[in-house]
Write a structure and sequence with these properties.
Layout: H1 14-21, E1 28-33, E2 36-37, E3 43-55, E4 61-72, H2 84-97, E5 105-111, E6 118-122, E7 126-128, E8 131-138, H3 144-152, H4 155-158
Parallel strand pairs: 1-8, 4-5
Antiparallel strand pairs: 1-2, 3-4, 5-6, 6-8, 7-8
Length: 171
């Protein structure tokens, strides 16, 4: 398996992650980010749920739920990567105390304790040789009004180059 394969989906929900992991609870759970695999001693240091209300750059009200899972990327003793079942137990334990929306946006916060924490969205876990791989992709900023506008426009109208509208590229 190529853990750098970008063809699989990203930005999955917590419910989807836990559902997929339940298929092989003894499989090691390995997160990849920045071209590297998380170290075997990693910890899930915090799981939190948040409700956001905001105005986007077009003054449109926005509201969403988000789950943050914080990973501390360290080596510790002779540990192996966490089994998928243990990760799911941690999530269930947190869910006993904190309302975790299974369809909420899922964000991973990752740091090695030295470098600043970075935000990532997750791809669907892929099982390979008894190991689940979850690729974490840097969460980029976006312009919601522009995304809505692009989603509403026919594909031909969103092209800014070539013979469709005869104009030069507007990007």
């Amino acid at each position: 398996m190529n853990v750098n394969d970008k063809t699989h989906s990203s930005d999955i929900s917590l419910g989807h992650l836990v559902d997929v992991l339940s298929g092989a609870p003894d499989a090691q759970l390995i997160f990849t980010y920045g071209g590297n695999s998380i170290r075997p001693g990693y910890h899930v240091t915090e799981v939190k749920a948040a409700q956001f209300s905001a105005l986007d750059c077009g003054a449109n009200p926005e509201a969403w739920s988000e789950i943050f899972i914080q990973l501390w990327d360290i080596d510790e003793d002779d540990r192996t990567h966490m089994p998928a079942g243990k990760f799911s137990v941690i999530i269930r334990k947190v869910a006993d105390y904190v309302r975790l929306g299974q369809t909420a946006k899922l964000t991973f916060e990752v740091s090695d304790g030295v470098d600043p924490m970075a935000l990532y969205c997750a791809s669907t876990p892929h099982l390979d040789n008894g190991r689940f791989y979850v690729e974490l992709v840097a969460r980029a900023s976006s312009c919601k009004p522009r995304e809505r506008w692009l989603a509403e426009k026919p594909v031909a109208e969103t092209l800014c180059c070539g013979p469709v509208n005869g104009s030069k590229c507007c990007a």
